[in-house]
Amino acid sequence: MTKTNGKKQKQNKKMKKPKAMSNHNPDFFFNREFSWLEFNYRVLNEALDKRNPLLERVRFLTIYISNLDEFVMKRVGGLKSQAESEYSYLSIDGKAPEKQLEIIRDMILKTNDDHEKGFMSIKRELAENDILLLDWNDLTPDEKNECNDYFLKNIYPVLTPLSVDPGKPFPFLSDLSYSFGLYLKGGINQDRVFSRVKVPDSVHEWIRLSSDVKGYRMINTAEIIKNNLGHLYPGMTIECVMPFRITRNADWEHADEDTEDLLVLIEESINSRRLQEPIRMECLTDYNDEMMDYLLEELNLKESDVYVNDYTIDFLSLDSIANLNIPKLKFPEWRPMTIASFQRQNIFEAIREKDHYVHHPYDNFNTSVEKFITEASEDPQVLSIKMTLYRTGDNSPFIRALINAAENGKQVVCLIELKARFDEKRNIYWAKKMEEAGVHVVYGIVGLKTHTKIAQVVRKESSGELLQYVHISTGNYNSKTAKLYTDMGIFTIDKRITGEVMEVFNYLTGSSLKIDYKELLVSPVTAKSRFLQLIQDQTKYALNGDEQVEIIAKMNSFEDIAIAQALYKASQAGVKITMIVRGFCCLRPGIEGLSDNIKVLSVIGRFLEHSRVFYFKSAKNENLYIGSADWMHRNMHSRVEVITPIYSKEIIVKVKKFLSILINDKRNAWDLGVDGTYKQRNGSEKTATHNSMMDLYSSED
Questions:
Q1: Tens of pLDDT along 389-419?
Q2: 451, 471, 610, 690: which one is catalytic?
Q3: Known catalytic residue: 451?
């Protein structure tokens, strides 16, 4: 697995002329799934790294599990579906689904072991800081009475025991539910009965006991339930109790992409996914053998689908520990900065003066992006608002503003992506609410996800001119994640951009077939071909002797084969290429004569690096783009994406400064080696990207 120390992978510096490449050589690529698991280990390392504040390390424990849950649901589920199909699928590195599943299991077992050992170590450190995570046997008699009372008042009314007998079938086990399986004995025939009790998410947490003792004495509500199960089965004897957790396949496909009503299609798909087959069971080493066999048979699982922990499988509830209000055990509070001109004047006046760049969470999202839409909804001069919503968040200020704008008589169009995985229910709910208020809601294009993050406001100026104001972002219009994710965007009235954004909206809401975008890079129309052309141009410059030619590309994930092959050719020509890829990366750097001019690094830290930036430099040209797309096949071919050029020299300087900080990070950066492992740089905290950016913004305030 990943190493956290060691010398950087040696890079071969000899320049070699490009040579013909085969269409696809598996040896030149890393497996997507294995690379993703390497990424999640880097996340886990943030929990294991004692340089991080203790409660932040607790939160990284839960992030690791949450990430892994989604990976198993989507990626492992998809591989299992492939393995069971009649078709033969090979990964980018030439492996069959069965072989990938075998390696994935081995990798997960190893990292899960590190994760659990990390939890036990952190538990001891919490105790040293007067935060005790208690088991039932650790409680005093008074505390047990307190827990019993808490159970009867706050938990017992919402529990539903589900037993299996001739009149009751095996219960449905919901996805990711934490459950207790029980064997009961009693009744007239004294037969053994299986029963299941789900721990509802609404009550599943760590609670603080009222105690005169210094510090925090905490116990999990699941532990309270386990020791009060007798209340659910009066007259019965509980022979054994086995906690377990089930994961279901979420790799569902839309059954009928030709349906006329996309809303109905997505609602049906949600219900279908809920009923998908189980693909993983988690339990403890002291599981009951007979109950294990019974569950495996009922759930149609194999032994290879079972993951066993020594101490606990209940990690997600640790969020309630991470949320404890103990500032000394957390990252220092960061207060985002407000752009002065946005504060001094009407936001539209500020945008008319010049293009404005925002970088969240360093720039305040509420006083910039939110303000843009909120002021537009109230400004009597604004005639229309159009925007896309991908992950909206609960109680979204954007939805409130759009509803308010519609009620104020403005033309309001919102394209809401119903297929944003795991957010479908929320998006459907808000789509219906907006429609009821008079917002023109569009559900996207069948066969494509609308992943772009764009907004357009049309305002009638005092001169009578209709002026278009545009915001283009790398991240979602989500006020909550804007505090945790790093994303950037621009506000502009530049007609080169605003005119083409209008065309994108016409494509999304109407029947526009425009394919000749001159400025914007738009998927699935022009983005990939333009990126390939930009890379090929850099290659030509290098072959013609340009020693300044360079490519820096920052994204979340990278696996597009055609773009990788173009980068390999550029590397062979002598182009200096730096890839800043937070998640998985299928491109293999450091291959002699092929990719020895390519460096790949990943930055994992306090904030989630989410922005996408593409920089192409030569002696004569400098082109910089930001947008919503990674270099992934899906982003290039099956999603609607918008990537915009940056024309402002002032903004280009700021973005280049940020890229430089990332590349020179000696604290949170990891280097990808030719063998697929990552090695963490162990330098000064002062160089950490997020610390450096906060210092930079504080000094500019």
A1: 886 666 789 999 999 999 999 999 999 876 5
A2: 451
A3: yes
